[in-house]
Structures are given as structure tokens and as C-alpha cells.
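Query structure, 281 C-alpha cells:
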């Protein structure tokens, strides 16, 4: 069965792995996320809300972009993620970022933000119509919205190949949610995204594709694949597996990735959608 990704408990269990995430996956998602931030175009002095902030990486990036006269607030449903984000900001001396545990499906957050952003954080709503309406309520009149979400799984071999290949060696059952159900690909249909955002009250809605490759070098491949599995949907199964099963899972991923082999390693394609809009003046 697919994991229930809509509750705080699931993300609390994943918080430690996500707080320590680094390497190729983070750089890859950061590259795709940058297209969303560029579309949002946060400027000095603005107040920005980051939805589904996780361990705080994107919120801290936004805080840097708006500068000391501006501020960034990161929201997450998971208390453990918020604690990790607060620790990251404190360690980095980030004074203009704060983090709040909040469920946008339950209620709007405070209003008046100049912009709302999300990097791969809005695909997990069980009630997206309510959540997006509450999200739009957080914007001031004329405020801007940008989110980056995953495109169709068939366009994301870096994720699909990795997890499908590793499930067997880890003894884990892995099934994709039904189309539109909460999960990484719930907003993969541009028409559905457009409809949700317009129904929530945004205008000038646009959904544009952005793509790239997760480049996996030969020398670092076992470590990087293990890192990908640790933070992904099979993370709990990977953490619980013995060393033999982990090694078998990594080997299975690399074998499945052979169609994407290049001289220096592997290039696994990935594709996302950048959704933008604005609250009417």
C-alpha cells in the first residue's frame, strides 16, 4: 500500500533523514526549485510564506533573498520538521526567518504576505481545494504565488526507477497512489493544477514545465543511491534493513539505471511543473 503522507506523524518520522539530506538529490531539487523562486521574484523587504518548508532550506533561501528588512515564514504540518528548521536557522544565524507548525487544510495562516512559495510541498494535501483557498487567504491583494510540483512519474525516472527497483530487495510493498490522491504526483496534471488555483481565487495562473537530470557519478554512486533511498518513500524500510539488504537495494537501483548510463556515470531525467498566479488587486 502507499504510505499515508497526509499526517504529521509520517513526516515526523522522516524529519531526521530530511534534516540531514545533502548531496545530489538536494542539489537536483534545488535546481528545479530555483525556477519557482525566479518566477516568484522575491525582492528586498518583502514578507514571504514558505508552505511545506520541511527542514527549512527553502525558507532560509527566501530569507536571504528578501534581506534583513524582509522576512520569511516556513510552515509545516510536522513539529519535528519545524524543530529541525529552527535548529538550522539558529546555526546559520538567520534572524529574519521563523517557523510555525500549521495545517493549511484546517485554517488559513496569518495574512498580508507579499508572496507564497512552495518547493515540492503542496502535493500532499488530502483536501487541496480547502488548503489552496486558505493559502490564497494568506496573500495580500496583488500578492504572488509560485509552487514547484512533480510532473508525471513517467517523466521522473530518477525517482520511479530508484524506488521500484529497490522495493523488492528491501522486502517493501510500493504502489503509486491513485491519480490525484495525495502523494508526489498528485499535481502532475497541469489542467488540475490550473483548476485548483483558479478555484482558490488566483488569476493569471500559468503552469510551465522545467526539467533536468540527476547526474550520478560512478565513484559516488553507492553513497548517493543510499542517500536517495534513505530520504524517499522507502526510507523507513531502508533504515530498518540489514547491511546486506541495503547493498542489494543499491545494486538493484544501479542495474535498473543502466539505460541512463553515460561515460561518467548515470544521468537520470526529472521533470517538474512551476505553477504561478496572483491574488487579484
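Result returned for the query:
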Amino acid at each position: 500500500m502507499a504510505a499515508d503522507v497526509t499526517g504529521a506523524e509520517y513526516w515526523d518520522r522522516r524529519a531526521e533523514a530530511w534534516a540531514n539530506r545533502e548531496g545530489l538529490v538536494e542539489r537536483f531539487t534545488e535546481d528545479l526549485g530555483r525556477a519557482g523562486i525566479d518566477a516568484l521574484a522575491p525582492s528586498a523587504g518583502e514578507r514571504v510564506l514558505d508552505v511545506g518548508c520541511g527542514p527549512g532550506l527553502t525558507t532560509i533561501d527566501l530569507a536571504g533573498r528578501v534581506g534583513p528588512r524582509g522576512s520569511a515564514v516556513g510552515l509545516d504540518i510536522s513539529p519535528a520538521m519545524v524543530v529541525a528548521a529552527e535548529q538550522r536557522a539558529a546555526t546559520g544565524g538567520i534572524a529574519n526567518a521563523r517557523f510555525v507548525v500549521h495545517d493549511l487544510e484546517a485554517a488559513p495562516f496569518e495574512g498580508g504576505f507579499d508572496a507564497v512559495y512552495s518547493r515540492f510541498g503542496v502535493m500532499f494535501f488530502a483536501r487541496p481545494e480547502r488548503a489552496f483557498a486558505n493559502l490564497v487567504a494568506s496573500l495580500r491583494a496583488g500578492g504572488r504565488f509560485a509552487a514547484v510540483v512533480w510532473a508525471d512519474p513517467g517523466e521522473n525516472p530518477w525517482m520511479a526507477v530508484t524506488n521500484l527497483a529497490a522495493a523488492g530487495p528491501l522486502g517493501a510493498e510500493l504502489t503509486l497512489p491513485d491519480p490525484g490522491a495525495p502523494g508526489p504526483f498528485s499535481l502532475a496534471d497541469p489542467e488540475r493544477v490550473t483548476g485548483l488555483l483558479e478555484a482558490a481565487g488566483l488569476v493569471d495562473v500559468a503552469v510551465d514545465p522545467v526539467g533536468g537530470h540527476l547526474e550520478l557519478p560512478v565513484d559516488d554512486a553507492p553513497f548517493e543511491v543510499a542517500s536517495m533511498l534513505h530520504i524517499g518513500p522507502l526510507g523507513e524500510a531502508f533504515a530498518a534493513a540489514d547491511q546486506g539488504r541495503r547493498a542489494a537495494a543499491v545494486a538493484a537501483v544501479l542495474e535498473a539505471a543502466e539505460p541512463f548510463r553515460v561515460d561518467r556515470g548515470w544521468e537520470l531525467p526529472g521533470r517538474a511543473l512551476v505553477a504561478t498566479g496572483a491574488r487579484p488587486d
